[in-house]
Each structure stands twice: as structure tokens, then as C-alpha cells.
């Protein structure tokens, strides 16, 4: 039975674009519940400027307030050396760096060229040397850019190589705006894993056009075993027209469980936590399983 790792991003990718600020104690409670549910990794927050993302202005308080469960990796997104310093002070397990594969999206997202972003990443890698903190390198718009269209496979391979030369321990290919197709996912991931067979490769899908879970299946067929997802399906790129949320964690675990894949994440706990998330936010979330129930939930005639 193949094992699939579930990596939760709701408290960073999901909450950052909510209209409301979720109180710090609620974020901490949410992360603790996700840890208890057995997800493999949690992207807890982001050490960015509070002016840029006000909803995550409590990053230190969140990281220092959570109960860290053995076996769960706690990661944070960082944009620069200052963010690395803040992350190191909170003793995170891993930092996540993000650059867009397309120049247009990178300029829109961080107001830098791709080369300028990598120059900054080099400084981050130097700062983190000897700290024991792992580095994950993410490539946004890996499967298409809303401004430029398709992104060549050769460009993706070249940017992965740049990350690995910096000392990245893992790579994430992100479908930032939901442009990936299952065929494209299989072909690109097959080429990546053929070139780097032992690479810890994560896929980060958005469900903007309804293909998120189909893309997961083709990623698995290509050999990928790590997937980002967001509780309730929250999230979406703030710099992409029409973007909607990430693939939904409980929907993903539901699908994998009933396809006989091994996931250590407890589905019932996830569903309960997704319902709790709705009470925190005061509105419905896009997930389907919390509305319809599991396929084993039968009803009287």
C-alpha cells in the first residue's frame, strides 16, 4: 500500500486572504487540532511584513504558542533574510522559499525579477547554514502563468536546479492559479523525477478549474507522494484574476482513503476540524465532504 504525505497550508495560504483577522488563539487551536489529526507537515504562518499580509501579523506568537507534535514538520514561508532571522528565533523545522516560474507573476507578486529573487535566496541559505533548519524551494506558476500562459518544462527543470544548487532540501511545484491539466502534471513530474529520482517533490494544486484532485492522481502515477492541501479548500493567489482556493484537505484524504492509499491523517478528525474552521470564520468553506459526508455515511430510507 503506497503512503501519501498530507501537508497542510490553511493557516498560511488559507487565512492570509480572508477578509477578517483570525485571532491568534484560534490559529493556535487550529494548528494543534491539525497536528492531532496526523498531518505530516503544517505551513503554520509566514514571516513577511505585517503591512504586506496583515492577517499573519502574529507569526511569532503563533509559532511560539503551538504544541509541537513529534513527527509533524512545522514550516513557514519567508521572503528574505529578515524573515529567516524571525523563523530561526522561533526554531521552525523548515522554511519555504517561493519564486514564480514566470517573470510576469514574480514581478506582480514580489516586485522582483526571478534572478533577483534567487540572489536573495542565496543570502537566506548562507544565513541558515548550520542552524539545522531545512529549506524547501517552491516554484509558483509551474503549470502556467495567468499573464504569460504556458511555462516550458525546460524552464522548470532549470529553476529546480538553481534551488538545488542553493542547497534546497525539497522542491514544490505549485499550480498557483489552477491552470494544470492531469496530462501536463504526469509529463512534467515524470521528467523531474527521472532527472532527480530521490528528490523530495511536493505538488501544490489549486482547484480553480475543478481539476485539482484529478491532478493529484496523475502526480501519484508519476511517482509523487507529497501533496499540499488546505483545510476546507481555503486559499487562492491574491495576484491572479479569478483565482480560488487550494485543493481541500479533507476531500483529498477522503479520496485517497477510499482508493486504498495509506495516509496517517485521520479523516474524521479532519472533518471535525473543518467544521470548527467554519465556526471560526463565520462562513461556509468550499470543501465537499463536510457537506455531503463520507461515502460510507448511509442514510435511512
Number of helices: 12
CATH superfamily: Aldolase class I
Helix content: 40-55%
Low-confidence stretches: none
Strand order of the largest sheet: 1-2-3-4-5-6-7-8
Decide which structural class fits the backbone.
alpha/beta
- The separation of the N and C termini measures 35 Å
Number of structural domains: 1
Order of helices and strands: EHHEHEHEHHEHEHEHEHHH
What is the general shape? globular
Sketch the major β-sheet: 8 strands, parallel, barrel
Enter the CATH topology name.
TIM Barrel
Strand content of the residues, in percent? 5-15%
Describe this structure in words.
By secondary structure, the protein is α/β, with parallel strands linked by helices. It has a single domain, classed as Aldolase class I (TIM Barrel, Alpha-Beta Barrel). Helices cover 42% and strands 15% of the residues. It contains twelve helices and eight strands. The chain has helices at 10-14, 24-37, 59-65, 81-89, 103-110, 114-128, 153-166, 182-195, 212-222, 249-257, 267-281, 289-292; strands at residues 5-8, 41-46, 73-77, 94-100, 134-140, 170-175, 201-205, 226-229. It has an eight-stranded parallel beta barrel, surrounded by eight helices. The longest helix has 15 residues, at 114-128. The two termini are 35 Å apart. The mean pLDDT is 95.
Q: Which short descriptors sum up this protein?
A:
301 residues; 8 strands; 42% helix; 12 helices; alpha/beta
Quickly describe the structure.
With 301 residues, the chain is of the alpha/beta class. It contains twelve helices and eight strands.
